[in-house]
Each structure stands twice: as structure tokens, then as C-alpha cells.
Design brief:
Cathepsin D, subunit A, domain 1, seven-stranded mixed β-sheet, 2 helices, 106 residues, single chain, two-stranded antiparallel ribbon
Length: 106
């Protein structure tokens, strides 16, 4: 992302894609204001959405695949790719082959 390697977690159980504030700050991503929404995290804790990053410049191998992200505050840096991104790029998780196959648009 923006020329920096960031480990992304693909979560087929998450309906949205999420990034934590430490990565947003580190990469100096442009964040739009929050709308008062919140999400329920993996640990079942409710997290306030701090803002949104629209079209974050995600690159996988040589494919540019922008992602819209909700920003939350968490102590650990994390980028979670949810089903919104998986649907957008017609992605398939091939568990037996440990592969993610998707359609790049450009």
C-alpha cells in the first residue's frame, strides 16, 4: 500500500474492510470524517469508526486493487479485507490451494 508492504488479512466473515489508525498515520492516508457509525470487532467489542479512506491504493503482486476502508483505533496495526472487497473484485478463496483469485480492473 503506497509502496509499503502491509500484511492484509482476508476475512470472509467481515462485511466491510477495515484499517487501524496506526497504518493510516504511518502511510499518511487521506481520511474523511466519521459518520457516527460503529462496528463489532472479532472480540465482540464495539469499536467506533473514526473515519473512512476511499479508494486506498492497495496493490497485490502487480495488480492495483483499490479498497474502501473504515478506520478504527486499535493498538495493533491491521488491514482487514472483507467481503465488500471480495465481491467488488469477484474474488474466490481457494482454501485447498491456499490462494486468493480475483479480477483486477486495470
Amino acid at each position: 500500500m503506497k509502496g509499503h508492504p502491509v500484511k492484509a488479512i482476508v476475512d470472509s466473515g467481515a462485511s466491510v474492510s477495515i484499517i487501524t489508525l496506526p497504518i493510516v498515520k504511518q502511510l499518511r492516508l487521506q481520511m474523511s470524517p466519521a459518520d457516527g457509525s460503529s462496528i463489532v470487532a472479532v472480540d465482540q467489542a464495539k469499536k467506533k469508526v473514526l473515519g473512512f479512506v476511499q479508494g486506498a491504493p492497495l496493490t497485490i503482486a502487480d495488480a492495483r486493487v483499490p479498497v474502501d476502508l473504515m478506520v478504527i483505533d486499535a493498538p495493533r496495526a491491521a488491514l482487514l479485507v472483507g467481503t465488500d472487497w471480495l465481491r467488488r473484485y469477484s474474488a474466490d478463496l481457494l482454501f485447498s490451494k491456499k490462494k486468493l483469485v480475483f479480477e483486477s480492473r486495470g
